[in-house]
Amino acid sequence: MPAEHAMAPPVLEIHDLHFAWPGQAELLHIPLLSLNQGERVFLEGPSGSGKSTLLGLVGGVHMPDRGHVRLLGRDLASLGAAARDRWRVDHTGFIFQQFNLLPFLSVSANVTLPCGFSRLRRERACGRHGSTEQAASRLLEHLGLPPSLLERRADSLSIGQQQRVAAARALIGQPELVIADEPTSALDADSRESFLRLLFDECSAAGASLLFVSHDRSLAGLFDRSLSLPALNRARPITES
Amino acid sequence: MHLLRLALASLNNRRFTALLTVMAIALSVCLLLAVERIRTEARTSFASTISGTDLVVGARSGPVNLLLYSVFRIGNATNNIRWESFEHFANHPRVRWAIPLSLGDSHRGYRVLGTNLAYFEHYRYGRKQPLALAEGRPFATDPFEVVLGAEVAQRLNYRLGDSLVLAHGVARISLLQHDDKPFEVVGILQRTGTPVDRTLHISLAGMEALHADWRHGVPAQGAARLSAAQARELPLQPRQITAFLLGLDSRLATFGLQREINGYHSEPLQAVLPGVALQELWSLMGTAEQALLVISLFVVLIGLVGMLTAILTSLNERRREMAILRSVGARPWHIAGLLVAEALLLAVAGMLLGVALLYLAILGAQGPLQAHYGLYVPLRWPGQHEWRLLGAVLCAAVLMGGVPAWRAYRQSLVDGLSIRL
Fold first, then answer.
1. Are B187 and B137 in contact (CB under 8 A)?
2. Structurally, how many domains does chain B consist of?
3. Are residues B236 and B313 in the same domain?
4. Given A225, B17, B186, B376, which residue has the most CB atoms within 10 angstroms?
5. Would residue B421 count as lying in a domain?
């Protein structure tokens, strides 16, 4: 996949972002970070480097003290809290480290969760596959999960299977951006790569950009572009790198 | 709908705690409704002890006292009234019927009432229901005949034709027995749920015959003593009675006649309206009844606080759940709504179970309540007042659900999408 689409606006654009937790020293100062459509970017950062905070800022859960976060050209600061939440779920899918499923729901219900909160994603999923359940089962199938697991409780699956369910949930309804926060840290080396391949395939199939955050540099080679948060961040938080 | 389904699934995941919470709410709601129902039924049953009677007349004491001894068979009259006074008012142009009441004797703890046939014809209770005989007939011309109330017959196991001895006075253990003049059971009344069930009815002539040979409150000794056969030969015209009930030809005449009786010159009398006296009597018991209601309200509050505790303790372990929901697009008010929905579900389940328990309890206790306390609790649909109570419980539950909802709302704003355990 080509890295540059000169004409299309960036999916994610961070400009001169400053952020500090109340009463603390500045944690983040990022002059520029942008993600183009369909691009797969690896963002490396050790723990404590402000990764989670950055993801919170991209998700519009936290607001920067100064600077802009633009998601699909829309400045998050210009939106109200509710509109920001809607904008996030309409256009972003999240995958977290582990335990990011609701254990008491079925696999299928977990995957379709975003469609319950985002009309846009529900309509996209239905438009393409007829129903959200159909869309879920199609995605899971592509990610290598047998249909027999669909109605099982999410916590009865193995960690590797759970991460694929989480990926399917991030991808349902074709959000423009998928953010993955250490999704492979609980997997062994082999399943890590095969998980990544599947994730890449599905992201390209959906035309989604991928922002992959990890401390594991060994994966960086698989991406279009690799960035380091400590290098990007001018605030220089207390880290070892 | 989406939120409610999520709340249900989440509750189902914690079904043991949820079940306990529901049980606590159910029991407290059941108690509240039971107290409420017994309260209202007791009040209705109390108010329906006597009906159709316009005035109760007795010697001057107080309205409550008069009502207690004449209708409830509790306590004693301070004074008797003369037969002439009764006759005077029984023949009053506005009076349709009059029932004389003569009290003072008992049988194994049950009061004996001397009266006449007007009692069986005109006495009304409940919704103006007349007395009906389950077996036998009213007492007739022979003075030594007795008609039993339903409870007396059942408890003491009397049948028609049995003979029994009355005791002088109303103490449970009486040393003075009218054992020379036994009575024969000629009739047994149907159950009324009123003090009539606990009464033995004899004629005024019987009452007179019992005491014909008594002087100064003790029976005559030796030759002065009269046998039952001798007593039958006497002119058994009563000289005194304890009280009487009056039915008038028009309600409007009540106050006029009451004034007339209260101002009667030959003897100090007092006439009371049974409804007014019943109200006064009930208000004496009102405090206890109110206390009961307040206690059961507090029990409901405790049930709801239990629910609040259960939800609040679950909040911390559910931060991850909330963060996941946030990441898939739930807004903070969705999270709050989820917790209110949870409280709502718990409360509704508890209330449904509580109402079910109430009906089961009524079904089981209906017989014993009627038998032991003369209290009939019907198996009826919840009344307006009960719906209002249930509504108040529901509102309280939702309000309480607001506490964890607010906390979760704040928490989800701080936690954002990243919760790591």
1. yes
2. 2
3. no
4. B186
5. no
Domain boundary among B214, B237, B272: B272
CATH number at residue A39: 3.40.50.300
- Which tokens hold the place of B174? 């009486």
Q: Is residue A113 within 8 Å of residue A122, measured between CB atoms?
A: no
Which of residues 13 through 32 in chain B touch A, CB cutoff 8 A?
A: 13
Q: Is there a domain that residue A7 lies in?
A: no
Give, to the nearest 10 degrees, the angle between helix B274-317 and helix B332-373. Answer: 140
Task: Say yes or no for a CB contact (<8 Å) between B12 and A55.
Answer: no
Domain total in chain A? 1
β-pair partners for A26? none
B367/B399 same-domain check: yes
- Give per-residue pLDDT as tens, A145-191: 888 888 999 889 988 889 889 999 999 998 999 998 888 887 888 88
Instruction: Kindly state whether residue A241 falls inside one of the protein's structural domains.
Output: no
- Would B280 be classed as within a structural domain? no
Q: Cβ separation of B332 and A89 shorter than 8 Å?
A: no
pTM for this prediction:
0.74
> How far is A51 from A166, CA to CA, in rounded Å?
19
B77 and B137 Cβ atoms separated by less than 8 Å = no
Q: Which of B10, B328, B332 faces A114 most closely, judged by CB atoms?
A: B328
> CB within 8 A of B359, min separation 6: which ones?
B379
Q: Which domain-ending residue is among B272, B297, B316?
A: B272
B418·A56 Cβ contact <8 A:
yes
pLDDT tens sequence across B376-408: 777 888 888 889 999 999 999 999 999 999 988
In which domain, by residue range, is B35 found? 2-46+286-415
How far apart are alpha carbons A108 and A147 in whole angstroms?
10
Q: Residue B219: pLDDT above 80?
A: no
Residues of A with CB under 8 A from a CB of B: 52, 55-56, 59, 61-62, 81-82, 85-86, 88-90, 94, 96-97, 99-105, 109, 113-114, 116-118, 169, 181
C-alpha distance from B9 to closest chain A C-alpha (Å): 6
User: Which residues of B fall within a CB distance of 8 Å from A81?
Assistant: 331-332
Could you tell me the residue range of the domain that residue A209 belongs to? 12-232
CA distance B12 to chain A (A): 8
